[in-house]
Structure formats: C-alpha cells, structure tokens
Amino acid sequence: MVRFPCHLVFSLAVLVIAACGARAAEPPRIVASILPLHGLAAAVTEGVTEPSLLVPPGSSPHTFQLRPSDAERLEGADLVVWVGEALETFLVKPLRTLGTKPRILAVSELPGVTLLPVREGGVWAKHRHDHGHEHERARRGGKEHAIDGHLWLDPENGIAIVRALAGILAERDPERAAIYRANAQQEVRRIEALDRELAAKLAAVKDTPYLVFHDAYQYFEKRYGLSAVGSITVAPDRQPSAKRLAQLRKTIQERRAVCVFAEPQFKAPVIASMVEGTGARTGVLDPEGAPPLRPGPAAYRTLLRNLGEDLLRCLAPGA
To answer: Which pLDDT does position 248 carry in this prediction?
Structure first.
C-alpha cells in the first residue's frame, strides 16, 4: 500500500475543492422580454446558457400580462433585457420592485441604438423624413416625442444590442468572457450579411405602396427605403372604427396600395372586406415572432429574413 505524506494529501484535497468550486460557478441567469431580444441574447450565450423568455411566441407585448411564475423568474435573474417603457408596459412596475439584484438592461437606452418617434395618425405623408432628424426628435423624449419601441427591426440596432450584451456578460462572468465576445463577433457578421441580402432583395419594391396592421415596422422601412402608407389600427389591441376603415379603403385606392398586411398576433377579419374591389392583395407580417418561429440563437435573423420574404411575396409575387 502506497502512503503519501500528510502535507501532500492536504494540498491535493485543497486543489480538488478549488477545482470543484470553479466548476460550480454558474453563468448569469438571463431573462429577455420578447423573442427578438431573446434571440440576440441566445446568440451571445450560445454554448454557455440559454436565456429565459417572458412573452411566448405568438403573443404580443402590447397585451401580455405577467404571471406569478414570470415574476419568480424576474426575481431570480441576474440580467433582465427589455426594450423599455416604450414597449413592455407590463414590466414597468415589476422591474421597479426588483431592487438592485438583477442588472436591468433597457436596450432603448443603449448608445448606438437609433430611436424613431411614434408616427401620428394612421395614414402617413408621402415624403420620407430625414433619418437623422427623426433620431434627434426621438432622443429628446417626452410625450410629444414618444419613442417607437419596435427598434429591433433595424439590424444596426440588433448589432448594437449584441455588442452591449457581450460587454455586460463578459464583465459579470469573466471566466466565459472569450466565449461571449467570440459569439458576438460571429453574430454581428451574420447580421451584416443578412442586412446586405435584404437590401438587395427589397430594392425592387422600394416604391411599392402598402398598408400594415399596426405601426410596428418603420425601423425596417427606414432601413430599406420601403413605402408603407398607413396602418389599419393606431393601437393593436383596439379594433378600428367604421369611419377609419372607410378612410383606409379610400387610401388604398388613392395611393394604389398593392398589399394590406395582417399580423399573426392579432385577428383582423376586417381586412378582407376592406380590400374587396380595390385590387389590393392581402398578406401577413410578423414583427415580434410567432410560431413556427422558435426561440434560439438564430431567431432574430430568422425574424428579419421572414419579414423581408413576406413583404416580397405580396408586393412582388414570383420575384
């Protein structure tokens, strides 16, 4: 039987305990409010951990209500990622009660993220506003210049969010910092490639007019120079009035809108009767992520690609 000196046995025991302690260190627990932000976080943390998603695919942050189990997830989080008060109003009060334990990241407050103000009314002017001027107006804040919260639909904003997440996670979890940064670099390259792909495909329909269900797409429109002329509803959780529908039907005819788009998150049976006899086609656009889209590292890019393909399918059939 081999006998080891006592001091060597003690040293080995210390090393084993230290190694076990190192293995026991858990990555940060991340909660993301909506699928696009969850997708970006999942891309940065791929191979390390999977973030938790609050608003399930097919639901809308405009109408979602927090459940007790959701509140428990927020309580146990190390990092909560949301757009901000401009979008997830259901989170405003709960996040205020969390204290200082989780880091709360409102991506609308990140430097490098372009913000646009909410557009007035449901029928928009024919001219396109200057992008930089819109950015300055939105940054001032206030009621008069309320922010449009659908900021993830500009891929440059997606890139800014990825880089910010990588920096925050590397600081909170230095042992895995190299993984977060490498994942972020790879995701940025993928988003940049998708951005070029979308710009090339959508160039053919830049001047083709269309209507959307609610005003969720102006970041995408600005990025690719698209020509949406109005939205069916000002608030997605409220059905448009008969007067508004008549006005929009007139808009379809006067502006020669080619398509009118519904959304999978909201039923809009009025669309079929509104376009009847106008020659306009109908389609579906998904700004937030509905089945069959599933959460995961590719979800954000899949959402943008699907949006581009759905636009093309209706605006330029067979293209």
So the answer is: 83
